[in-house]
Structures are given as structure tokens and as C-alpha cells.
Amino acid sequence: MNMLMRSRKFSRRVLTVAIICAAATLPVPVLAFAHAVVFPRTSTPGAYERYVLRVPNEKTSATTRVEIRFSKEVRVTAFEDVAGWQLEVLTDSAKRIVGAVWTGSLAPQRFVEFPFMAANPKEGGKLVWPAYQTYADGERVEWTGEEGSKRPASVTTLARDGRFGASTNVVGWAALALAVVSLGLVMRRSAAPRS
Q1: CATH of domain 28-159
Q2: Tell me: the pLDDT tens digits for 160-188?
Q3: 145 vs 36: CA distance, rounded Å
Q4: pTM of the model
Q5: How far is CA 69 from CA 26, 27, 96, 180, 184, in A?
Q6: What's the pLDDT score for residue 35?
Q7: Which helix (H) or strand (E) element contains residue 4?
Q8: Which residue, of 6, 19, 34, 93, has the fewest CB within 10 Å?
Q9: Residue 102 burial (CB count, 10 A)
């Protein structure tokens, strides 16, 4: 009987640790994306990619204008229409697309996504996506800072294995694997025949 009680206590501890580990990693991606972000966060050099600029409205005033600038390394080729928003494509003297401006209205506590197609540079590295968000009250927020700053520009990492470049993905997958293994151990112990 004493052995059975110890086994149950151990099972509860393992389950508790697994739940805490999994829960601790959930806020990381949410906090990392609480600003204007271009998805995907990782891609492959030389690939044609469908990118999406996601812009949340975290203020009490409506967002009325969103602008993004494209680095010379990436070649933007097309945009998807977004209902309720007007698009102005910005080009240089050689007609290369260098930016885009969307005007419309985004109510507080909502987000909008602006899809576009682009050809990645053939070399690896990082694409920085400076974005600007203007509100109905005249405030303009510049998402142009360095990674880790209060208002960072979104960054896409270009790597041959583009799907697993972000450290938050690794942490999330590791926590999920730990939780699944722990749950399996708890279930196996619980299902063991008792004498």
C-alpha cells in the first residue's frame, strides 16, 4: 500500500512539472508578437514566399494607416487586396517596389493582415521589415527598433532549414515533448496492475 501511495505522489509531481513547463512557454510567443510582425519569421534563401504583415491595434483610437518599407535585398512582386483598406505601392525611379501604404480603419482590440509576395535574396541572413502605424488621434508608432527594444522592427531569418530557425519554436517544441513524455510516464504508471 505504501508503494502505491509513493507511486501516485510521483505521478502527480511529474504531471505538475510537465504542466508548469508547458504553461511557462506559452506566453513567450504571445509576448514576442505583440507588435507589427511579418510572418513567416523564418524562410529559405532564394524562395518565393507569401509574407503577411500582421498589425494589432493596442490603443483606444482606430489605426488609420499602416506603412512598411522593403529592403533592397528582397524583391516584392504582388499584394493581396484587403477588404476595407486602400493600397498605395511605393516604387523607386527604377520601378522597384520599396514600400507599401495601406489606409483604412482598424478598431481597437482588432488586428489586420496585409499579405504580399516576395522573392528572397539567394544568400542567407536577415530581412528587416520596418513598419509604421498611424492612429486616428494623430499618434504614429514606428516599429523600427533593434530586436529586444520597446518597438522592434520585425525580422525574418533566412536559412536553408527555414522552418526551425526561431528559438521560441525550439523552446515550445521541447516543452511539448517533455509534457508528452511526462504524461506517458504518468499514464503508464497509472495503468500498471496493482497488487
Answers
A1: 2.60.40.2230
A2: 864 544 444 555 666 667 777 766 666 66
A3: 12
A4: 0.67
A5: 31, 29, 12, 42, 48
A6: 83
A7: helix 2-25
A8: 93
A9: 22
Residue 187 phi, psi (nearest 5): -65, -40
Q: How many CB atoms lie within 10 A of CB 185?
A: 15
**What is the reported pLDDT for 7?**
58
DSSP assignment of 120-141, as one string? PPSS-EEEEE-EEEEETTS-EE
Give every CB contact of residue 19 below 8 A, 6+ residues apart in sequence.
179
Task: Give the pLDDT score at 180.
Answer: 72
Round to whole Å and give the CA distance between 109 and 134. Answer: 15
By C-alpha distance, which of 120, 84, 126 is closest to 102? 84
Comparing CA positions, the residue from 96, 99, 75, 76 lying closest to residue 87 is 99
pLDDT tens readout for residues 95-149? 999 999 999 999 999 999 999 999 999 998 999 999 999 999 999 999 999 999 9
Run of H or E residues at 62? none
35/58 Cα distance (integer angstroms) = 9
Q: Grid coordinates standing for 186?
A: 504518468
Do 129 and 53 form a contact (C-beta atoms < 8 A)?
Answer: yes
Residue with cell 510572418: 39
Extract the C-alpha cell encoding 72.
Answer: 533592397
The one-letter amino acid code at 156 reads: T
**What contacts 150, CB < 8 A, 6 or more positions away?**
none
